[in-house]
Design goal:
The protein is α/β, with parallel strands linked by helices. It is built from five helices and five strands, in the order E-H-E-H-E-H-E-H-E-H.
């Protein structure tokens, strides 16, 4: 898959924060980015489009980041979409709650570019590594089974 084919969703009630995140993503070559100003709009877009990563603020009006994360994890076939949460008010309690809901990473606001780049890169590579590992396992099993049947063991 080409990096230009990856689709991302940035959900934050702050237009300036969405712009900053989008700018960082653009420098990584990730220009296929949709934006939502709250969790309601984000969830609506998420249900319509297959995203490879969601970057969401924790505190937003209407539907916050935790509720959005919970809704994403409840959607069959889409529950494994990586979700990165950003917040200027991360506490031990909401970190624990987000982890329990299945968040894939956190970035504290205000943030410097490096942690966001590292986490976005890791989360986008995770599914590709998983697919490669599954393909390698399948190739190994097919090779192993072929070898076994050739020796009359199957």
């Amino acid at each position: 898959m080409d990096i230009r084919d990856l689709r991302l969703l940035v959900v934050d009630d702050s237009e300036s924060m969405r712009r900053v995140i989008r700018s960082v993503l653009s420098r990584l070559g990730l220009d296929n980015v949709d934006e939502a100003q709250d969790g309601v709009q984000g969830l609506r877009l998420f249900k319509l489009v297959h995203y490879h990563l969601v970057v969401t603020d924790l505190y937003m009006p209407n539907l916050d980041g935790m509720e959005l994360l919970e809704a994403i994890r409840a959607l069959p076939g889409r529950e494994m979409t990586p979700v990165l949460m950003v917040s200027g008010q991360l506490t031990e309690r909401n970190l624990r709650e987000a982890l329990d809901l299945g968040v894939d990473g956190f970035v504290a606001k205000p943030f410097v570019e490096a942690p966001l780049v590292e986490k976005v890169t890791r989360l986008l590579l995770m599914p590709l590594k998983r697919k490669a590992a599954e393909a390698a396992t399948t190739d190994f099993e097919v090779g192993l089974m072929g070898g076994i049947s050739q020796r009359g063991l199957a």
